[in-house]
């Protein structure tokens, strides 16, 4: 046998025959330690596993009662072992037992053999699909496939289910899990031994695909797509991103990231389900990476700055409140708008820290006004839905209003309307019970505005600026705006119109009964100091 370390025992004499054709450094010193000598070749993380395995062998040798002879007379384990060159790789250790009539072990042979990419992968897959190590294993195994096929071209194909969360919400998490298991089963049939696949995270899968030309890739994707989008009549859509591997010596993670970028580039585009990576997508990656590398420092260095946009009572043109809007002001003075970093922070969760910082800025300002004997007007802060995945937002808010001694009604909270009513409902109730004023942000831009209104806990509705722009232009649209305002007024919900840019819009809104507006027609978001000057002037004037 090639490439194998073979150890042989007879009865209780210990190891008496060794053949080492492997790349393992099974030296004299190790041989003298018997079975235990093998442990030092195993990488530290896998040693515990290996020791359990060796204990079983020792028990077998001792004829211990708790040794259960395997039906097929062998035991095996796969762990990472160091080779003589210092590198580690997966090795399979198989022990065959020879037994006498009484089932006692008389001899034992142990073969240790380096595993092929496919073996490693199958073992890993058999262990569990949710195993944390699976993606790392995939990368290793994929590198091995590339090494063994230097003349072939390969691509990484990633796919996920668009709006997977909605499947969980609409059909239950159990169905979501079933669907993902269905994917795994189908992929096992569809993919041959060179087409390794892995489940990267919840609903994201990646496949290593050999190909000759682009058409092969597209055909493969279409086959996968066709076979995977037919589960129990549930309707869902798969989104594929592809990145061709240019240099097989480079870390495959890089190509994986690029396939992910390609996949993400078609999110929200219902007409497209496959995208190949293009260089220009890298800019997005670098910006995101840049953001992530700098966000913690930026928070410490107070580079996030609260701007305020006044809310006006259109009838008497008085400032009646303000919305806190974040800006990232770089040390060189460049001001980055939230659209360039808020979505990334929502993705990576940092938004909760950044929001809490802005909330504190708002509380500080309210506290300052109180101490200076100025009139208090409410400041509304934005609360990303990411907060609802933690339990900390409520204690954080409460600690802030306590610290700065602010009546809760002056710290208003804007939350965007979405469809996952159930989740938000309980969180919104909690905020309400604590006594905060809640504003439903971006009303009219989402899915189920009317449903949300039906049993809403919100105190104030903010009409989205896109809604105004889309509707105020036509007669029919005007009617819709008019009736939406009438309806909310009828159920006693005050409204703020966002994005009022013209006098005509302001006049229409007032005519229909909406009197509070926030928009460029009145004022743009501004620094706290500019805002205070305006507010002071108004107070003096009154
Ligand atoms: P939003 O909460 O809907 O905020 C209103 C946005 O509309 C602001 O954009 C504001 O500048 C803009 N706007 C107001 N009036 C007009 C107008 O008349 N015309 C036009 N074209 N735009 C108008 P901004 O400041 O760029 O913020 C964008 C979004 O970023 C916000 O939308 C909000 O979703 C998010 N955001 C901003 N600050 C924060 C924050 O501190 N935390 C969180 N979680 N999100 C924030
Ligand atoms: Ca807002
Ligand atoms: Ca808004």
User: Any idea what the radius of gyration is?
Assistant: 32 Å
Main beta sheet: 8 strands, mixed, barrel
**Bound molecule kinds, no repeats:** ligand C2E, calcium ion
Distance between the termini: 97 Å
Q: What is the CATH top level name of the largest domain?
A: Alpha Beta
Strand content: 15-25%
User: Which architecture of the largest domain per CATH?
Assistant: Alpha-Beta Barrel
CATH topology of the largest domain: TIM Barrel
Number of strands: 20
Quick gist of this model?
By secondary structure, the chain is of the alpha/beta class.
Question: What does this 3D model show about the protein?
Answer:
It is a single chain. The chain folds into three domains: 4-115, PAS domain (Beta-Lactamase); 119-278, Reverse transcriptase/Diguanylate cyclase domain (Alpha-Beta Plaits, 2-Layer Sandwich), CATH 3.30.70; 287-535, TIM Barrel, CATH 3.20.20. The chain is 42% helix and 24% strand. It has 18 helices and 20 strands. The chain has helices at residues 28-32, 47-62, 117-127, 134-148, 164-171, 173-190, 214-228, 252-265, 279-300, 342-348, 351-371, 393-403, 421-434, 449-454, 465-471, 475-490, 503-512, 528-541; strands at 4-10, 15-20, 74-82, 88-99, 105-114, 153-161, 197-201, 204-211, 238-244, 274-276, 304-313, 318-329, 335-336, 379-382, 411-416, 437-443, 460-463, 495-498, 516-518, 526-527. It has an eight-stranded mixed β-barrel with strand order 11-12-14-15-16-17-18-19, surrounded by six helices. A five-stranded antiparallel β-sheet has the order 2-1-5-4-3, with helices on one face. The termini are far apart. The protein binds ligand C2E and calcium ion (2 copies). One calcium ion (CA) is lined by residues 441-442, 462, 464, 498.
């Amino acid at each position: 046998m090639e490439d194998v370390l073979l150890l042989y025992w007879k009865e209780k004499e210990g190891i008496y025959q060794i053949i080492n054709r492997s790349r393992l450094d099974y030296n004299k010193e190790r041989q003298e330690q018997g079975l235990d000598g093998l442990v030092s070749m195993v990488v530290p993380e896998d040693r515990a596993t290996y020791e359990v395995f060796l204990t079983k062998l020792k028990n077998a040798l001792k004829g211990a009662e708790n040794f259960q002879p395997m039906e097929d007379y062998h035991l095996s384990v796969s762990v990472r072992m160091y080779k003589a060159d210092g590198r580690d790789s997966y090795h399979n250790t198989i022990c065959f037992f020879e037994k006498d009539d009484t089932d006692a072990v008389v001899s034992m042979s142990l073969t240790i053999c380096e595993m092929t990419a496919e073996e490693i992968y199958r073992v890993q897959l058999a262990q569990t699909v949710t195993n944390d190590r699976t993606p790392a294993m995939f990368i290793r195994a994929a590198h091995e496939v590339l090494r063994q096929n230097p003349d072939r071209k390969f691509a990484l194909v990633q796919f996920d289910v668009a709006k997977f969360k909605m499947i969980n919400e609409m059909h239950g998490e159990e169905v979501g899990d079933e669907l993902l298991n269905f994917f795994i089963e189908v992929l096992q049939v569809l993919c041959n031994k060179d087409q390794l696949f892995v489940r990267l995270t919840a609903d994201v899968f990646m496949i290593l695909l050999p190909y000759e030309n682009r058409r092969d890739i597209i055909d493969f994707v279409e086959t996968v797509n066709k076979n995977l989008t037919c589960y129990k009549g549930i309707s869902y859509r798969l989104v594929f991103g592809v990145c061709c591997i240019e240099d097989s010596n480079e870390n495959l993670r890089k190509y994986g990231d690029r396939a992910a970028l390609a996949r993400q580039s078609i999110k929200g585009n219902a007409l497209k389900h496959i995208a190949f990576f293009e260089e220009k997508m890298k800019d997005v990656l670098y910006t995101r990476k840049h953001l992530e590398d700098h966000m913690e420092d930026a928070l410490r260095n107070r580079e996030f700055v609260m701007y305020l946009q006044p809310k006006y009572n259109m009838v008497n043109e008085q400032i009646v409140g303000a919305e806190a809007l974040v800006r990232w002001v770089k040390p060189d003075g460049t001001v980055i708008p939230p659209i360039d970093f808020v979505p990334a922070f929502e993705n990576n969760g940092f938004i909760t820290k950044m929001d809490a910082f802005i909330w504190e800025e708002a509380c500080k300002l309210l506290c300052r006004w109180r101490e200076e004997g100025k009139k208090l007007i409410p400041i509304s802060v934005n609360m990303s839905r990411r907060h609802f995945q933690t339990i900390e937002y409520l204690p954080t808010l409460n600690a802030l209003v306590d610290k700065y001694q602010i009546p809760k009604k002056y710290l208003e909270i804007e939350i965007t309307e979405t469809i996952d009513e159930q989740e938000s409902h309980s969180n919104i109730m909690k905020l309400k019970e604590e006594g905060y004023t809640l504003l439903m942000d971006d009303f009219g831009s989402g899915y189920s505005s009317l449903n949300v209104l039906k049993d809403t806990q919100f105190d104030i509705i903010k009409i989205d600026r896109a809604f105004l722009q889309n509707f105020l232009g036509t007669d029919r649209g005007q009617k819709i705006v008019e009736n939406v305002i009438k309806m909310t007024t009828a159920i006693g919900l005050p409204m703020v119109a966002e994005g009022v840019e013209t006098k005509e819009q302001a006049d229409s809104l007032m005519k229909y009964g909406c009197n509070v507006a926030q928009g460029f027609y009145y004022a743009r978001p501004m620094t706290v100091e500019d805002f205070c000057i305006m507010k002071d002037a108004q107070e003096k004037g009154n």
